[in-house]
């Protein structure tokens, strides 16, 4: 959630850090700050509010120097204000620190330090770290040693960057546990550090991802990585190919709108290079799946959160139908504590756009502890979910900036479809003709998505129907039940309208009591195995006065006659239909929120990457 940027080198650090922070705005934050070493002193500007406000503070009282750190904070301890904003100084004023994470034993350490005479300046848990470093500096006189000692006392998962005015040639970065990613960007006579790659991509493509329990000592000309005990460890540089231009809004008003429109490209990229249409074959090399291993798999767990969890629900149907392997789908935060029974020959698949979601990483660890093979489907290359897994599938949709996930929902749907075909093929359970058919169905997918995107205006035109609406019900069945969940989540998170999703067949067991003329119902009713059932449920709702907005396939006159409005989508092979049915619902949430004048890309209380429990 918090963003971190640091710089050491010959250039003026201030603009590099401020622009880096700006690139991390998508993570969600409520205050921002910067610290620069200048003429023997550490100077800080920080406050609650947006980065544009931090720019104003810096232009009112300029900062210049060759060493600095910056931070965007998402409040956990202490309200968002200038005092609690990072960077935080130690009581002597010689050490300054930024932090991502939660100090779990904060109260104990705080009381201990206070008893020693430390006078705290903020209400944050972070300040205990910098005060601990100060405590150990008095005895060791070496910043690295003091950081190592301080970190060995704090519990929880953390990313930090720190510097001292007494050693102004270096930044020290550290990563403890699974939260708080830290990436070092290697330059020529200069180096960068950040919590996320987009912050530094403009300056370098050479990246070193810091592993947990490691400390990086970064000077303009060198990088050394150590364990918490001071043993030097080898590091490996990776070349990153993401284009920072891809992270710009371009012609669209919001990142969310742009990312919805990027789904033709992400579908094409997801299929490209993995599908051989001539031979009806799928290849997913990074998953490292052999026929021998595929044939031994007895069960698959899918663990994920939010939108990624909804993709997992579709994945269950795909894998069970195509590969005939039983699948359980778990919300990661539940899986990690429910003591799941994991028998031999189980695979656990984690789905995560960011690859840094704390609950998903913890669920992966739980599965690993119990002997499961781990795979992940991730968007962020180099992320932890990718690195923790034995094999991975990358989403191929480029950086997703909007907090409301869109293209990172449809990409894993196709990844899971490809995986299901591959599994079935390697297990020899898929008749050849059916395999060809399933593979061939992918050909038209980007085009079908394109047709849905071209109909944005039709969705925009009905957004006004929701002007006075405060509750909404989404109904779906079968493979499009998860579409209902995902559509409702999109509406909730960016328009703040209460939206509930229900399997339509479950209505008669209670929720039907809610129905009246004030409750719009969004019915997902493509022409599939469940179409007849949806028709009868729409009829029942209609009879009780509900306003019906249906998602239906072109030409479905029956659905049209029962609905107040229809959002039309092209007929799509049923196993791929969740890719097209969700698109009008993404647009619907977007245009309702836009009409309400809300902050679409950074909705209240939400962060793009949830790196704390
Ligand atoms: O990065 P992840 O895919 O692991 O994130 C999981 C959820 O936090 C995320 O999908 C969240 O639900 C989105 N805001 C939904 O739009």
Please give a quick description of this structure.
The chain has 613 residues and is an alpha/beta fold.
Strand order, sheet with most strands: 3-2-4-1-10-9-11-15
Strand content: 15-25%
Mean pLDDT: 92
CATH architecture of the largest domain: 4-Layer Sandwich
The gyration radius over C-alpha positions equals: 26 Å
**Spatial shape:** globular
Low-confidence runs (pLDDT<50, min 5 residues)?
Answer: none
Number of strands: 27
Query: What's the CATH C level of the largest domain?
Result: Alpha Beta
**Terminal residue distance:** 11 Å
Q: Structural class, please?
A: alpha/beta
Number of domains: 3
Biggest sheet record: 8 strands, antiparallel
Number of helices: 20
CATH fold name of the largest domain: Glutamine Phosphoribosylpyrophosphate, subunit 1, domain 1
Bound molecules: 5-amino-5-deoxy-1-O-phosphono-D-mannitol
CATH superfamily of the largest domain: Aminohydrolase, N-terminal nucleophile (Ntn) domain
Helical percentage: 25-40%
How does this model look, in words?
Helix content is 35%, strand content 23%. With 613 residues, the protein is an alpha/beta fold. It has three domains: 3-246, 4-Layer Sandwich (Glutamine Phosphoribosylpyrophosphate, subunit 1, domain 1), CATH 3.60.20.10; 250-452, Glucose-6-phosphate isomerase like protein, domain 1 (Rossmann fold); 456-595, 3-Layer(aba) Sandwich (Rossmann fold), CATH 3.40.50. The protein has an eight-stranded antiparallel beta sheet, with helices on one face. A seven-stranded antiparallel beta sheet has the order 5-6-7-8-12-13-14, with helices on one face. Strands 19-18-20-21-22 form a five-stranded parallel beta sheet, sandwiched between helices. Helix 3 crosses helix 4, helix 7 (263-271) runs antiparallel to helix 15 and helix 9 runs parallel beside helix 13. It is globular and about 75 Å long. The model has no long low-confidence stretch (mean pLDDT 92). Bound molecules: 5-amino-5-deoxy-1-O-phosphono-D-mannitol (M6R). 5-amino-5-deoxy-1-O-phosphono-D-mannitol binds at residues 305-308, 352-354, 357, 360, 403-405, 489, 493, 606, 609-610. 5-amino-5-deoxy-1-O-phosphono-D-mannitol is lined by residues 305-308, 352-354, 357, 360, 403-405, 489, 493, 606, 609-610.
